[in-house]
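Q: Given only this backbone (118 positions), what sequence would you predict?
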């Protein structure tokens, strides 16, 4: 069951994308130095905070669960799963843009059949 917001504002989408990219950047650049050391619980706390923030901003989506679980595997957090998950959830909705409207027009009426004179 998903409880994603039906229409998150562009500001919420932008904030969710920034949070996801910042978390992935920090986990790629800073936390690998301490992967097996004392900062591993901090890395896990960051993942819990990111999951909470993203769910609050754009709603819960099933894609966040595999992202969260994969972040708990040592060295697997070098893959930017938060960014991929947020982009998947918000795909089709760019910050500041409304989704394109699709207009379907009926076909033109066919001409009336001609009458044959006898």
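A: Predicted residues:
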């Amino acid at each position: 069951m998903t409880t994603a917001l039906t229409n998150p504002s562009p500001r919420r989408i932008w904030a969710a994308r920034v949070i996801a990219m910042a978390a992935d950047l920090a986990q790629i650049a800073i936390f690998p130095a301490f992967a097996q050391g004392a900062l591993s619980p901090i890395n896990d706390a960051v993942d819990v905070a990111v999951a909470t923030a993203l769910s609050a901003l754009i709603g819960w989506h099933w894609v966040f669960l595999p992202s969260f679980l994969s972040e708990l595997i040592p060295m697997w957090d070098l893959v930017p799963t938060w960014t991929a998950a947020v982009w998947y959830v918000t795909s089709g909705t760019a910050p500041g843009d409304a989704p394109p409207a699709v207009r379907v027009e009926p076909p033109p009426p066919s001409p009336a059949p001609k009458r044959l004179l006898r």
